[in-house]
Amino acid sequence: MRANVSGVRHFFLGLMLLLPLSGGTAYAQAQESRMDQTQAQRQQVQPGNNAPVWRDVRSGKEGYTSIQGRETGVLIQTEGETWRRLRNGPITLYGGWWVVLTLIALGLFYKLRGPMGLHSPPSGKMIERFSSFERMAHWTMAISFCILAVTGLVMLFGKHVLLPLIGHTLFSWLAEVGKILHNFTGPIFMFSIVVFVVTFIRDNFPRAYDITWLVKGGGVLTGEVVPAGRFNAGEKIWFWGGVIGLGIVASASGLVLDFPNFDQSRWLMMLANIVHVIAGILFITWGLSHIYLGTVGTTGAYEGMRNGYVDETWAREHAQYWYDDVKAGRRELPSGAPGAAAAATAPPQVQH
Ligand code: HEM
């Protein structure tokens, strides 16, 4: 009898627990059938209107698919549209203007300031400024950078700037070649950055006199000769912030895009794309300012990087502390020859 009472009690307890569940299932079923009915009615009055289905798809809900892999069950990834609008909208627009304004500013600066020349006449004696290895490291990085910059600009702005000018056939060919070049030059650029940084890091550590140089703006506007080490504070900032800082950001985001076979999500690829484009634009515009200063902006600088030698007056005016150290024999020449022998080992004036 006692066993019977306990059995009945358990039966009712189970029923009470199951009731809400069965109620919930019944409710869901009712809801579903109501939606089916609504959809059926909708098809009567608005044939082809599949709004609820598409709302479901757009929510990014993962459905079933037999294809294995990350996000393969997601029919439409709506964040893709946000990324597309961001990339093709403000980033292309403002990025494009940023490049154009940089070019205008450099042109204006050249017109107003002109090239930074020497204050004293050239001595006619040359001093080694860069060894052949150092020049090779610089030009490998510079050439690969320029290939990346041009192909990157074609990918970002070509549709707006080149397509209307050269038409679809030529543009598609150019974009295709550009993309392949960009993908293969990226890793070369990364490697060249590592070699460059190892080669030049010693002369890029900040020193107290760099602050004075910065405060005086390198004498660019006043025309004052401000002493510097082998590289001035502006070059050092370009070394740390541009080559190393932007180099790391552009390389890391570029690798995520270059090798999509590491199971990264589309969300990460889109983020990497936005970061890569912004870093690329900043890198290109900063690079343009550097190229300006390394060519028409500073008399004699380009010859130093091309041939390895600068006039001693140039060395004294642009890198006085370095020049003094070399001449006093406190440090060797870039190729490793003893410093005090600088004038003796330098070739006669290099002609171009
Ligand atoms: C493609 C055109 C380029 C030209 C004409 C050019 C020219 C020059 C010249 C003449 C110098 C020597 C300045 C001196 O004697 O103090 C120099 C130094 C330097 N260049 Fe370039 N350059 C170019 C591209 C690049 C690029 C793309 C980068 C970086 C991605 C770069 C990074 C540097 C750095 C960091 C220095 C200073 C060295 C240091 O601080 O260690 N250059 N460049």
Q: Would you give an account of this structure?
A:
The chain has 352 residues and is mainly alpha-helical. It has a domain at 126-336: Fumarate Reductase Cytochrome B subunit (Up-down Bundle). It is 69% helix and 2% strand. The protein has 12 helices and 2 strands. It has helices at 2-45, 51-58, 79-113, 132-161, 163-200, 208-215, 233-258, 266-294, 301-307, 312-318, 320-327, 342-345; strands at 126-128, 309-311. The protein has a two-stranded antiparallel sheet. The longest helix is centred in the first third of the chain and has 44 residues, at 2-45. The chain is elongated. The chain binds protoporphyrin IX containing FE (HEM). Protoporphyrin IX containing FE binds at residues 129, 138, 141-142, 145-146, 200, 204, 231, 235-236, 238-239, 242-243, 287, 290-291, 294-295, 301-302, 304-305.
Question: What attributes characterize this protein structure?
Answer:
352 residues; mainly alpha; Fumarate Reductase Cytochrome B subunit; 12 helices; 2% strand; binds protoporphyrin IX containing FE
